[in-house]
Amino acid sequence: MTEKWEFSLNKASDAVWTDGLREIFEYRDLGIKDATKGDYVAHIVKANGKEMADEVQHWHVHDCDFQFAMVLNGWAEFEYEGIGVRRIEKGDCINQRPGIRHREIACSKDFEVLEIVSPANFKTRIVEAPESAEAAE
Question: Nearest Cα to 56, choosing from 77, 29, 84, 31?
Fold first, then answer.
């Protein structure tokens, strides 16, 4: 599988920020999706100042095999099925197991996260809240 992967270098000085899954964030693709032929995606996601509700604040799952996130700036609060509410802050890392129901509760205006997911073209689905939900809907 990895023999088809290519070397990639994504320079911060050449960063391109685009719209993505959520309107309240900007996304910087780090070139991993193309280099791994879609096996992985790595991007930086940062708050863009817009304040609005969106589907990711509802309970959802990601159809993926691997999802890692490291907070680069700010904070966010998520609720996870069977785990409860967790606040992640600058320097914190999450290895989010595949298929776990979760939702975002809140994030800071300066929230920024590095996310690595496999496969690159994963889907996000809205689901019913688990019985273990703690936070107010």
Answer: 77
Q: Residue 5 in 3-state DSSP?
A: coil
| 55: three-class secondary structure by DSSP | helix
Distance CA 1, CA 105 (A): 37
CB atoms within 10 A of CB 130: 15
Give the tens place of pLDDT for each residue, 48-63: 877 766 555 789 999 9
Q: CA triplet 89, 61, 63: central angle to 5 degrees?
A: 110
- The ranges assigned to domains in the chain are 16-126
pTM: 0.87
The CATH code belonging to domain 16-126 is: 2.60.120.10
